Amino acid sequence: MNLLLLGPPGAGKGTQAQHLMACYDIPQLSTGEMLRAAVAEGSDLGKQAKVIMEAGNLVPDDLMINLISDRIGQDDCANGFILDGFPRTTAQAAALDTMLGERNLSLDKVISITVDEEALVERIIGRFSCADCGAGYHDEFQKPRTEGECDKCGGGNFTRREDDNRETVKSRLKTYHEQTAPILPHYEADGRLIEVDGMAEISVVTDNILMLLEDGRGD
Ligand code: AP5
Ligand code: MG
Question: Whose Cα sits closest to atom 17 in ligand 1?
Fold first, then answer.
């Protein structure tokens, strides 16, 4: 199963990707996570990406296309993958079609998660994650079961993203509307797009996505 999760910053792409990974046993390919790892490593890509990400802008298309093309070719993607955060521009969407076509692959479904703008800001400002295993949380909507302890690995170190501040969020949302939302019609036109109400509770959103994916299997 090859899936693409689309939606504005804070829509719940990463959160839902975690559940879909477990259901279908396929990896999440998050370009945001890859870039944050590159920044932490201090690689050339990381140095270039750091400033761009902190300003809420997009890393150049050619760098992102190469990154995802290499990643899709890795062994763990043999049974499918969940794209999260790529494509983000019309040029990236065209490049994805080409790279999948060359491998005789295609996207089974494109899931667009919709959320009200005010809720997005609240979600992003309250987000934190486990510094050890990466599990995602929220100050209000997804607290660890035991305060200060990660549900998944039991660790007690938590971290917040550099770009999760009010100012950068505004600019990330603007970038989304100007550069990413215009790719939606591309997927709508060929019937692969399914829209999911991301305002519901996390588990309800997951159930709705799974139901829509299973419905589509009979196509
Ligand atoms: P990226 O990491 O992809 O960030 P993003 O698109 O801004 O999306 P987020 O990760 O902020 O949101 P999400 O939808 O994953 O939400 P989450 O599930 O965490 O990209 C970061 C940067 O990297 C970009 O700005 C850009 O600079 C660069 N970049 C990345 N890819 C690129 C590309 N292809 N080209 C160029 N540049 C690129 O949920 C958010 C919070 O809400 C969590 O705390 C969660 O617990 C909570 N939550 C989730 N669902 C619900 C719900 N239903 N109800 C209540 N709370 C919820
Ligand atoms: Mg994310």
Answer: 12
